[in-house]
User: What shape does this take?
Amino acid sequence: MPHPVRRATAADTDELVRLRIVMLEAMESGPVPPGDWSHRSAVALRRRLPDPDATLAAFVVDRPDGSPGLAACAVGTIEERLGAPGNPDGLLGYVFNVATDGPYRRRGLSTACLEALLAWFAERDVPTVRLFATQDGLAVYERLGFKRETNTSMQLRLPPRSVS
Assistant: This one.
């Protein structure tokens, strides 16, 4: 039976942040307390979700048992870089939050959300979508066509800007 996936609205913000904590705890194998980061995430979601032309979208499934809240989500953004021969518009999709609440796992809910997010990317002519996979999500992503790449990624953490 298909899962009723819908595009998230600003009213889903608190639940999207809660599901982000669920995902981060799975990645970190331990508690991830809310704080300034979760407040800032909520502010960004409330600002960006209402815009139908936003470069951020979230697709969700409500709890199938009818209780309030979300069971699953997939959130992603479109980044615009300079073009290249294989990507003249320079668009790149990035999936950064796929999560299912514990009691609703293994029912295809996150997969349904991710498929809706991938369709959203395709409608916007985004040729490449990237994500970082946890061990739990690998099989789902591979089933949807994601391929592992050689990791040449590097990162630099800049010091926080001092506030005067």
In short: The two ends are 56 Å apart (CA to CA). Helices lie at 13-28, 36-48, 109-123, 138-143. The chain has four helices and five strands.
